[in-house]
Amino acid sequence: MTKIKRQEWKFKYGKANYLRSRFSRTVTIAAIILAAIIAGNTVSAVTSPSPVSLKSVSVPEPDNLGDFVKDKTAAIKLGKALFWDMQVGSDGKTSCASCHFHAGADNRSKNQISPGLLRINADGTENPDTVFDVGGSPNYQLKPGDFPFHKLSNPDDPKTVVSDRNDVSSSQGVFNAKFVSVKPGSAEDEVKSELDPVFNVAGTNVRRVQPRNTPTVINAAFNFRNFWDGRAQNIFNGVNPFGLKDPNASVVKADNPNQLKFVKIRLNNSSLASQALGPPLSSFELSGDGRTFKEIGDKFGRIDNKKSLSKLSLLNLDNSDSLVAPLLSSVVLIENSGQINDIKSLSTQLQNILSIRGTKLPRVLAKKLTRLRPLGKQIVHPQDSVLGAYSRSPQPGLKDKTYDQLIKDAFKPEWWKSNRLIQVDAEGKRTFVNSPDNSSQTNEYTLLEYNFSLFFGLAVQLYESTLIAADTPYDRFLEGNTSALTAQQQRGKGLFEGKALCIGCHSGLELTAASVSSVKKDGRIKRAPFGAKSPEDNGFFNIGVRPVTDDPGLGSNDSLQNSNPLSEARLAQLGKFKDLLGENPPTLDPPLNSSETVFANGAFKAPGLRNVELTAPYFHNGGQATLEQVIDFYNRGGDFGVLPPLNLSPAEKQDLVAFLKGLTDDRVRFDKAPFDHPQLFIPNGHVGNTNYVVNDGTGKATDDTVEIPAVGRSGNGGTPNFLS
Asked: What is the mean pLDDT of residues 358-379?
């Protein structure tokens, strides 16, 4: 047997000297930086003769989308249903929307703390911190006084440290459990609960919390790459987040219903599709440890339970969801690692927590079972802007539809229509067959099930691409309505584009240098406009939120078998840029040197800023609760010696905050179309506190559930902001 660790929140770190070569000095001449920033990053509307706003920016879309999607409207409907459907989660309760229901982000405040699980040593070796500094234990109810996590007696003086905590305010997902199988006709998977050595209260498991803060999905369609560390690639391979970096990713195409072939695909401008394939298999976010996209498809498709499920030693990992499969057509056998409480060392226990192994039981698809109704646990508002015509309100779910049918309505038949099955045997050999062989040593998939990750990723991307917030006071001001921003907000806008240096990272009409248009204009990698002008990935910055050893971010390596850098500048240094990213690296002036320092350690993607008033807590660690705290952070030059101090007056700080509030689209605030949504039930921590929780009889804490009501295109009063 070959034991393979498939990592999600455990990244290998690059060369140790990279860590030691992080930003080693604070840039103190703000005027030099300001001149460089203004020269290269002024918002186009400032100098354009014709007023423009975000409405003038086309939402990026794959050039070859028509090769896959036959009906874009139907694909958006499918994507919205999948995004909000609680049945997608292994627990039958957790959806993508569970962490993205409030302005595209998460406003929950109980059981939302994760300790410093991504911490590393100075030499790059793992050193996860399992101590809860904030609250002392999981299931803590956050309070305004807990923020910021890096406390100062004088918020303008970084030397006046009162306390420092490396915890992360993020989003709760699922309980620690091993995936066993789908239960046909049931939204809840069969899983085996395992004691979680970190996320438990007095020995009872609580829901795990992600080790990075949840960013909004609204306007994320403009990003060239997605996730904080950029690992969701611009090119979508139909299988996982890693694009061309995974040479083994393939889907199956039917030249005709009786003829199948393995094909590699690439869709550009599709980082949202790449991103969408991470959470459904994450043992932190949505999944029992080891589930694959084919099992998700089985929930809504078909499975034959007549095949033996008794041979627990045979566990397989399909290349369609593998990040480490060594051969295109291989299925890798891995050992059952056993229960967590049988593992001797805490280090090994943490490896189990931070990984999502591709383990699953042999199963076969042979006969149709009752399909789960899309959104079968949730009411869909009859005036929903996308799904209203299919609503069964006041009954839950969509009427007269199955996910099979929704996929067939949306996608071209060569990706789902075939009379043949894809059979995988215990040695990893893939064969196209006409019928199951009734052997426990093989698995058979329909074409629709085999390609479920392709459908899921593209449909969710097309839905999220409708979530564009471009009707803000700021956008109306750019269009020529000079009264759209107040006088105070206009002063803040001037500071944003000048003295406060914000435009250096939050450039362009999208207000992020990580956008597709920014990369098209300036290249995927460029030189910093100050100091040694070191190379950096366009749109990724280390601003000194935390020490780089807390979370190396872009400075990590991916979790593929070859473990390549996430940083594209480092890929260029290694001569791997074209092979792994599909194009030649940009030419830098002076040319890139293979030994020079790259700015990547501790760097994270610059987010867009629209609706920032609604999306607290802030930064990749969620360590700031208010916009005022964010402005204080930048004014003092960050917390860990990277940025220049701004020397803003109290009045100027308030002007900046006022401007940031002018970036709110009221359609988002009040859940109006396209930001309306189905009903959702979310866990908001657990009944009890940090010392006591109610065991539900299976070793899991009882959820404290909150209902988010269904809302139609006209919106409602919205949901409250974080800690408000």
From this structure: 53
Cα(577)–Cα(666) distance, rounded to whole angstroms? 42
* Amino acid making up residue 454: L
pLDDT at 436 over 90: no
Q: Are 665 and 657 in contact (CB under 8 A)?
A: no
Q: CA torsion sign, 75 to 78 to 83 to 84?
A: positive
Of 85, 104, 76, 79, which Cα lies nearest the Cα of 396? 85
**Is there a contact between 290 and 182 (Cβ–Cβ < 8 Å)?**
no
The two three-digit tokens of residue 16, written as one number: 């140790």
Query: Residue 555 contacts by C-beta under 8 Å, 6 or more apart in sequence?
Result: 13, 14, 18, 19, 22, 548, 565, 566, 567, 600, 601, 602, 603
Segment 476-485 shows an average pLDDT of: 97
Q: How confident is the model at residue 617 (pLDDT cuts 50, 70, 90)?
A: very high
- CA-wise closest residue to 497 among 479, 476, 478, 516: 478
Condensed to tens digits (0 to 9), the pLDDT of residues 302-348 reads 433 334 333 322 223 233 333 323 222 222 222 233 333 333 344 44
CA 422 distance to own-chain centroid: 30
DSSP state of 89: S
Q: Pick the more confident residue, 149 or 284.
A: 149
Q: Round to whole Å and give the CA distance between 466 and 479.
A: 21
Taking residue 532's Cβ as centre, other Cβ atoms within 10 Å add up to: 12
Location of structure tokens 């909150």: 706
CA distance 253 to 417: 9
**Cβ neighbours for 174, distance < 8 A, ≥ 6 positions apart:** 89, 90, 91, 94, 207, 208, 283, 284, 285, 286, 287, 288
Confidence class for position 181, pLDDT limits 50, 70, 90: confident
Closest CA to 53 of 475, 468, 472: 475
Q: Give pLDDT, residue 84.
A: 97
What gap in Å lies between CA 553 and CA 544, rounded to an integer? 12
Closest alpha carbon to 279 in 315, 225, 241: 241
In angstroms, what CA-CA distances link 546 with 110, 117, 167?
23, 14, 10
700-706: average pLDDT: 97
Query: For 580-592, how does the pLDDT look when each residue is reduced to its tens digit (9 = 90+)?
Result: 999 999 999 999 9
Return the SS3 of 249: coil
pLDDT at 306: 37
What pTM was computed for the model? 0.87
Round to whole Å and give the CA distance between 29 and 101: 42
Which one, of 477, 616, 547, lies nearest residue 54 by Cα?
A: 477
